[in-house]
Amino acid sequence: MEYKNIESQMIHGRMRLNDTAHSVNVPIYQTSTFQQQTLGGNPEWEYARTGNPTRTALEDLIADLEGGKQGFAFASGMAAVTAVLSLFRAGDRIIISGNVYGGTFRLLDKVFENFGITYSIEDTADPEVLEEKITPDVKAIFVESPTNPLLTVNDISAMAALTKRKGILSIADSTFMTPYLQRPLELGADIVIHSATKYLGGHSDLLAGLVVVNSDEIAKRIGFLQNASGAVLGPFDSFLLIRGIKTLAVRMDRHVENAEKLARYLEAHPAVRKVYYPGLPDAQGYEINRRQAKNGGAMISFELEEGYDTKTFFSSLRLITLAESLGGVESLVCHPASMTHAAIPEEIRLNLGVTDRLIRLSVGIEHADDLKADLEQAIQRSRI
Ligand SMILES: *Cc1c(COP(=O)(O)O)cnc(C)c1O
User: Could you tell me the pTM of the whole model?
Assistant: First the structure.
């Protein structure tokens, strides 16, 4: 089935409805193994770590949504990142941007370094500076756009053009955008990663990671790693994720509509010192983001002025929940310095701009007026 619009594709996927009951939804194949008809045949399904029809339906769906060759589903975003980093070997170096997801930094810093795979932190927002940093041991550039929690925009096309010229891989963690808003493979990246725990699942009720690649050769290697290391997504979570993706477009539209309203409200607020949101015209990377993504997404970070107590602000919120994670229908707020970015050494963290005053908001799909009212009363209560 060819789709003109991604909204329809999200709901119908490849329409693999070959089960005997003609189920409208992809059935949950809750099984670890499959009967083989003959000895030495080449069965489509044999053991569920290698492949399970529910997971495959999800993998086909995300591959199509990203415009890639093949998709892979993992037990979490970090399992997906682990599989991708396992493409490399001792002696290889990977360039990452300063404010990559804390878990990705920790994995490189505390796990992959032990195996001789090193990393360096560079300013990936400036492709010209980046080019000089590509020494012969650099085998990949790994970026997010926009990044967490400062919503820095990285130019994915420029990065991909650079890595192609150098014969190395470009990897984009597109969790904050989803294929509805941004498709890195179409911008030239080799590998796209999602923590599907966030917007793709959308209801804060599952952990999942997805990888999509645009070449058969990399697909073969990721498929091998997925089966070899085994952190696959189970059939029930695969089903939940397919279900979540069906409503991605309508959810994202509301997420973004609310985020745009709240970003403008915060930007104009006398108690707010700084707002980070790539959908605001004077934000860093606004133009690049407009070229490579549909809009600014629904993550906002901000700092209150000196006369306001950040801790009191957090404890005064009533509707907006203090919690890690993002991308669910409910609005969540977090304090990156002590929560998501606690694993990053203080000096590096402060250098990046992740100050103790920084507040990160995952804008949900509640009524925008209710969100605004909750923020307003919390700001007023936090006045020192
Ligand atoms: C949450 C997140 C991850 C990790 O995903 P999990 O599903 O929590 O393992 C990776 N990258 C980004 C940008 C994230 O937000």
Answer: 0.96
